[in-house]
Backbone:
């Protein structure tokens, strides 16, 4: 949620029950403007809130030069003071984060122990041995950083054309973006995942007849597995507004106002993935 049109963006998300109290709005907006000025960020955004049993975590991010590669993430327990989220690289931390079943507590220094899946020794397509599952020591601050990264990778959205790739490789918000129109707004191929692309550039470009190297380098949400089930699109034609919800990470919601540059996403949830999606009708 861009700080530039913070209140207007939150008003758009009220259509689907995504709310912050008036006090929270004022406190978060003012503290994020201060955080942006202190770090000299070009752009500053509220990412969302992860609910915990004691204190909820509020997440924000900002960038200086490249809005995909040099994003810095912060968390806050009081919506006023912001701490830098650690950068997690260890695959075992990500694995333990997905397997962690307990709710977040709200204490960044809290340690939990997560049992990983057992390893299998396979010879000639036959299982000949099962290794003991490894137990990982997981700090809540690391788990928080990992879950934010995972959610971002799977369902953070921007409309096609909102991000622009410069000739030097930097990705910046497109100042010429004027929003999607009535013919594009309900087509999932016009929405992209707001992260570095995983698909090959040729694969992304080949999907479109009207491709543009500068804006079609990102993966589109219509290719996210399970295809056709990962997102639910809701069009409010009277309000000139589209709302897209993630079905994998309940609580992640995106909005975009037709024929305008205004768009954003916000996650308000408990950090649990919806593994039942394939069994839901």
Residues:
């Amino acid at each position: 949620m861009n700080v530039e049109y913070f209140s207007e963006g939150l008003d758009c998300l009220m259509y689907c029950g995504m709310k912050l109290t008036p006090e929270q709005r004022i406190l978060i907006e003012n503290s994020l403007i201060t955080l942006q000025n202190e770090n000299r960020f070009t752009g500053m955004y509220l990412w969302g809130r992860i609910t915990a049993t004691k204190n909820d975590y509020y997440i924000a991010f900002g960038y200086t030069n490249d809005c995909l590669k040099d994003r810095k993430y912060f968390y806050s327990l009081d919506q006023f003071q912001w701490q830098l989220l650690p950068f997690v690289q260890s695959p075992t931390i990500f694995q333990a984060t997905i397997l962690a079943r307990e709710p977040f507590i709200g204490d960044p220094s809290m340690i939990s122990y997560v049992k990983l899946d057992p390893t299998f020794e396979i010879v000639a397509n036959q299982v000949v041995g099962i290794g003991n599952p490894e137990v990982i020591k997981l700090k809540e601050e690391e788990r928080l950083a990992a879950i934010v990264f995972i959610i971002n990778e799977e369902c953070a959205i921007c409309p096609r054309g909102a991000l622009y790739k410069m000739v030097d490789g930097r990705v910046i918000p497109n100042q010429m973006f004027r929003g999607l129109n009535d013919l594009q707004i309900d087509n999932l191929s016009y929405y992209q995942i707001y992260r570095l692309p995983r698909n090959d550039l040729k694969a992304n470009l080949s999907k479109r007849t009207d491709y543009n190297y500068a804006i079609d380098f990102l993966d589109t949400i219509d290719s996210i597995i399970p295809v056709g089930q990962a997102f639910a699109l809701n069009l409010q034609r009277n309000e000139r507004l589209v709302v897209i919800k993630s079905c994998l990470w309940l609580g992640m919601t995106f909005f975009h106002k037709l024929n305008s540059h205004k768009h954003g996403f916000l996650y308000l949830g408990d950090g649990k993935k919806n593994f039942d999606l394939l069994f839901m009708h």
